[in-house]
Design brief:
single chain, 379 residues, alpha/beta, Rossmann fold, Tyrosyl-Transfer RNA Synthetase, 2 domains, two-stranded antiparallel ribbon, 18 helices, 9 strands, 53% helix, globular, binds tryptophanyl-5'AMP
Length: 379
């Protein structure tokens, strides 16, 4: 049995991210590369400072293209399900930051088809309904309405299909089966689907940069094998680690474990209950022991959430870490800090979600980029 496993559908065990870099053949984001981004952007996003985005493919070439005035574009996506959780929002928040910094186009694929094909119990009507709801959460992140195109696969397919068949003709059954671990009982929709996740990397004849969890990398490997033969760039990617489930730093936060997941719709009371009851603690069993030996932030889920994203202030997070390690800060107190940060974040998100209702049409149909993309039907 391998100690851990990462596929686009499942993450099991405690992920060794260094090993994953080797296994997948990606590159670590070096301090030099971070410094280069800092120079171009004027600052480093917390997700880069804390190494949540930790690995890449060709990010150096993307920056080169940017500096040479050739430009690049961003692409990311979402397989709709009932309700998004905080882990799902991470790549979108980071993508928006990159868009703000580099002033580039963003394409967001919503894969109602993929989710329907992949989950035995889901109907297509359901995944399309969830897509509408998820798109509101994505819109709430605040992308530039004229530089962003959000599209639903089953709706935009007419424009993707010509490219999808070209991609599909280059991919063999053997390659796709080996990449995704398919077998004789896999439905044929899933065999074709990778072509549809690859197509948006070819929406422009410039380099594409994909911010996403590292679980999506197998698609980019296939893309990179065939892109140049079709006259496009090999896609670049920037990979993130996973937000762990509340139960501990193994696996990933996932909708299939509802009690260990913080949903974007969770009420303040629910957040409190879940954190207090389930968030795995690196503290000692009693206050006396905790004061004496201190806690272990490395395995403490509340600390990890604060470190990864929810406490962006470097001074504050350092202080929390020191005080927790020394035993000055108790588990209950640490959890209170996280609860407040989470509820603040979720409250703001819900307000933005309300305001975003009027923006969805722009992202999907009326914004400058959206209109340009729909016009391509007539080319
Ligand atoms: P999906 O809907 O499973 O996930 C959406 C994005 O969220 C990331 N993610 C996480 N990140 C941090 N912590 C977690 N616990 C966590 N769980 C999920 C995923 O890596 C992903 O970036 N097939 C895709 C949809 C898709 C796509 C794309 C994603 C189509 N084109 C291009 C990224 C880029 C999917 O089902 O994602």
């Amino acid at each position: 049995m391998p100690e851990f496993e990462v596929t686009p559908w499942e993450v099991k065990g405690k992920v060794d991210y260094d090993k994953l870099i080797q296994e997948f053949g990606t590159k670590r984001i070096t301090p030099e590369l971070k410094e280069e981004i800092r120079k171009l952007a004027g600052e480093l996003h917390v997700l880069l400072r804390r190494d949540v985005f930790f690995s890449h493919r060709d990010l150096d070439l993307v920056l080169q293209d940017h500096k040479a005035g050739k430009g690049f574009f961003l692409y990311t996506g979402r397989g709709p399900s009932r309700g998004m959780h905080i882990g799902h929002l991470i790549p979108f928040i980071f993508t928006k930051w990159l868009q703000d910094v580099f002033k580039v186009n963003v394409y967001i694929e919503v894969t109602d088809d993929e989710k329907f094909l992949q989950k035995a119990g889901y109907t297509l009507e359901e995944t399309r309904e969830w897509a509408k709801d998820n798109i509101l959460d994505i819109a709430a992140v605040g992308f530039d309405p004229d530089r962003t195109f959000i599209f639903l696969d089953t709706e935009y397919i007419r424009n993707m299909y010509p490219l999808a068949v070209k991609v599909a003709k280059k991919l063999t059954f053997n390659e796709v089966r080996a990449t995704f671990g398919f077998n004789e009982s896999t439905n044929i929709g899933l065999l074709f689907y990778p072509a549809l996740q690859i197509v948006p990397t070819m929406f422009e004849k410039r380099r594409c940069l994909i911010p996403a969890g590292i679980d999506q990398d197998p698609y980019w490997r296939l893309q990179r094998d065939i892109a140049e033969s079709l006259g496009y760039y090999k896609t670049a990617a920037i990979h993130s680690k996973f937000f762990p489930p509340l139960s501990g730093v193994e696996g990933k936060m996932s909708s299939s474990l509802p009690e260990y997941t913080i949903y974007l719709t969770d009420e303040p009371k629910t957040v409190r209950t879940k954190i207090m009851k389930y968030a795995f603690s690196g503290g000692q069993p009693t206050i006396e022991l905790h004061r004496k030996y201190g806690g272990n932030p490395d395995i403490d889920v509340s600390f990890q959430y604060l470190y990864m994203f929810f406490e962006p202030d470097d001074q504050k997070i350092k202080k929390i870490e020191e005080e927790y390690r020394s035993g000055k800060l108790l588990t209950g107190e640490l959890k209170e800090i996280l609860i407040e940060k989470l509820n603040e974040f979720l409250e703001t998100h819900r307000q933005r979600r309300e305001e975003a209702k009027s923006l969805v049409d722009k992202y999907m149909y009326d914004g400058e980029l959206a209109r340009e993309m729909w016009r391509k039907i007539h080319e």
